[in-house]
Amino acid sequence: MSPIANPIRTPDLPFVPIREGVSFRPIRFDADGWTLQLKVEPGTTVARHRHTGEVHALTLSGRREIIDTGEIVGPGDYVYEPPGNVDSWRCFGDEPCIVHITLTGRVEYLGENGEVLFHTDTHNQRAAYLAWCAENGVAPNAPMVG
């Protein structure tokens, strides 16, 4: 059996602010996707968005409510979202929700008429992470951005 190459101790990685109440802990950036842990604070909503690729999301702590269905997703719950899925969700309860997410493609944030207001993808998320590292004197995790 081969040893694990370059293990990453995710609890030691910092959360990088995205906006008020939302931050991410980048784990890996690939050519057409990325892996991260998303932290959403109580009372914070993740705006309506569409995924152009697959999403695999495992809730590590806290709970989140899928707004369209009212489902509550808690620790240990796994959610698969196929390409084209549109949803919005919010942190439910009084503790932050941390979700481990692996996705491909883009995340397109939508306006009231379904128009794309902005998007995130592996390239702009990686750039945002590297800019945050430079501004805060933090060395990027080499296996993550190599």
Automatic annotation (TrEMBL):
SUPFAM superfamilies xrefs: RmlC-like cupins (SSF51182)
Highest taxon in the source lineage: Bacteria
Pfam hit, one: Cupin_7
All residue ranges annotated as the ChrR-like cupin domain in the record: 8-100
The protein, known as: Cupin domain-containing protein
